[in-house]
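To assess whether the prediction recovers the assembly geometry, we first specified each molecular entity separately, as shown.
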Amino acid sequence: MYEVIITRPRSLAEAIEALGDDNATPLAGGQTLIPTMKQRLAAPEVLVSLAGIEELSGVTIGDGEITIGAATTHADVAREVAGACPALAALAGGIGDPAVRNRGTIGGSLANNDPAADYPAAVLACDATIITNDREIRSDEFFDGMFGTALFEGEIITGVRFPIPERAAYAKFDQPASRFALTGVFVAAGGGVVRVAVTGAGEDGVFRWDAAEQALAKDFSPSAIEGLSPDPSGMIGDLHGTPEYRAHLVGVMTKRAVEAALG
Amino acid sequence: MTQVSMTVNGKPVSGDVPDNTLLVDFLRETLELTGTHVGCDTSQCGACVVHVNGRAVKACTMFALEAEGAEVATIEGEAAPDGTLSAIQQAFQDHHGLQCGFCTPGMVMSAKALLAENPKPTEAEIREYLEGNICRCTGYHNIVKAIMAASGQDVSKIAAE
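The predicted structure of the complete assembly is given in tokenized form:
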């Protein structure tokens, strides 16, 4: 590991001030950032550790919504929302492996917006709101292409507010070595609206599959999307799978998610 | 250099370390607790699993400074001071849950975390929990058997392979 300075603010205000340094990068759970730094794919000179800021951690379950502090680990999300939103708990409990889930955080995952990360699918399908130190951002406005988000330099996520869907499920086809989603689909239904968000497949990162949403809004059943699959152009092609393979998986995973949501 | 203090296996420790020191390097190089291994250094293999405040973490993917004030437990804290093995360690020995032994410290610490959460796991639950621990001798069968035995379950019907 190259030389780096680590600062450990105790409050959000101190963290924002530390991030005013152009060479500073926030350090959340570090489960992506630290390996990335070892490979020199990222080389921040100053890390601002968010782990010691108590106001960023914790889960609040309210009337019809769940608010999760940005520094809440995947393991804590899996445990604490199991009753209120089993689909979100299952997603959090399927990220990486147990040791990674004990460090990795929801805010870190969303700010990174890896095209194969799990949380972006839940946020987009549930139409969650990203809360930052400065403003609130709707899910449809937040994700901005592979590893891109609407966050400004120095702006950090402080929490995420999820409306609790009436029915929801996440179906993930794991890439077995990395345990990222080769393709993952989160389906959420509530108030007559169905949202289908796909991760791991799109070249621009997470996206909504409009055709499936429309079909499922009319008939929320696996047969409603029989024969549907998204256009392979725009899908990721790599050594793990061709664009056509991923497009096929989107259909299969959507069907499985709908079955699970009905179960 | 920054001073870092924590409790490791019940003993208060501190050291002056460069900020880029990983927790695993603090344990191995500064404290000379070399039982925690570095297999891959890329968060994949789990040979470096230790507990921080009771949670299993990969010590190669955390800075020592992030463990300031924490309670850290490593494989060196497992056996009793007189050398008597912990129940999990004894089960690994009894059921041949190790071959070359390189992954064993991480396997034992992950097993300990699992049994704290789930005292009687099924075979499938053990295999799922060990997703982040790789044994390149591929000795998983007996590792799983050892963990089942350590949890007090009957493993006499599980064939040795």
